[in-house]
Backbone:
């Protein structure tokens, strides 16, 4: 396959996935999406499945459930019906059936603590997270973050291949002579309740000189503006998963805040995937509302 063709197909696949994540609370119309992208529905489905290994409808169903499972444990004031609506379900009964098929428990059982056992099994998929000795007693700061336009590479899975993804981005910044930029990891899925091989991890570069960057190699999108709780942390790789686990399972449920369907993200001050000592310094941001 020609390089230009591959880049075009990759962009279409990424655009579809981005659209799904940012419109998960709506009735996603594949017909409208194909018109917007200027691609036939057949071609669109084939490109997407080649890129992600599952068809668009399967992905929409999976992402809706991932978002719903997250909101059920963080939004204690929301009813199951509220959560179902936020994640694009028109019927509470169909949501309950679909949820039970995926998680082997009802949304009510999940909300009442069933998520803990499920989440522990997810953590066990990461040897580094299980061996992490990190303890958290972090008081976050509440900040208003701007919309940030970024160039990115999507990594399928929360796994060792993330390092290679960051190396590719680093080569890209050097090749484009970009000097002032931030490295941001965007978590489209909560990796403590989504099987790690299914997580969409996005490695992003944000630069103030973005208008001057000429790139037909990397796609770009905007990281959402909003109100976020910001957690500062230093440590090693497995500590990040433990931090996310603590934020969603301990801090959020015990706070007076709820979260939204906006993805969380981490701004690296030192990137463990690129540092010689494998250590990081970062700020983790989770969307909050009151």
Residues:
């Amino acid at each position: 396959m020609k390089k230009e063709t591959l880049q075009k197909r990759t962009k279409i696949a990424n655009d579809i996935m981005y659209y799904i994540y940012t419109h998960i609370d709506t009735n996603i119309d594949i017909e409208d999406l194909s018109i917007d992208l200027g691609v036939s529905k057949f071609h669109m489905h084939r490109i997407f499945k080649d890129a992600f290994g599952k068809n668009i409808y399967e992905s929409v169903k999976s992402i809706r459930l991932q978002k719903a499972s997250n909101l059920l444990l963080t939004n204690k004031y929301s009813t199951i019906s509220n959560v179902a609506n936020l994640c694009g379900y028109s019927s509470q009964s169909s949501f309950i059936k679909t949820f039970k098929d995926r998680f082997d428990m009802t949304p009510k059982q999940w909300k009442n603590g069933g998520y803990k056992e499920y989440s522990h099994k997810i953590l066990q998929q990461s040897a580094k997270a299980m061996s992490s000795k990190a303890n958290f007693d972090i008081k976050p700061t509440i900040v208003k973050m701007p919309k940030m336009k970024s160039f990115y590479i999507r990594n399928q899975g929360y796994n060792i291949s993330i390092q290679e993804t960051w190396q590719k981005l680093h080569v890209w910044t050097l090749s484009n002579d970009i000097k002032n930029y931030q490295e941001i990891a965007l978590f489209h899925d909560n990796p403590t309740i989504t099987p790690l091989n299914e997580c969409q991890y996005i490695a992003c570069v944000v630069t103030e000189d973005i208008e001057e960057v000429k790139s037909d190699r990397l796609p770009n999108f905007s990281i959402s503006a909003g109100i976020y709780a910001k957690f500062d942390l230093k440590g090693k790789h497995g500590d990040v998963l433990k931090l996310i686990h603590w934020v969603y399972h301990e801090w959020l449920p015990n706070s007076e805040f709820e979260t939204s369907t906006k993805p969380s993200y981490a701004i690296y001050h030192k990137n463990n995937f690129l540092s010689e000592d494998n250590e990081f310094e970062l700020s983790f941001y989770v969307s909050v509302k009151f």
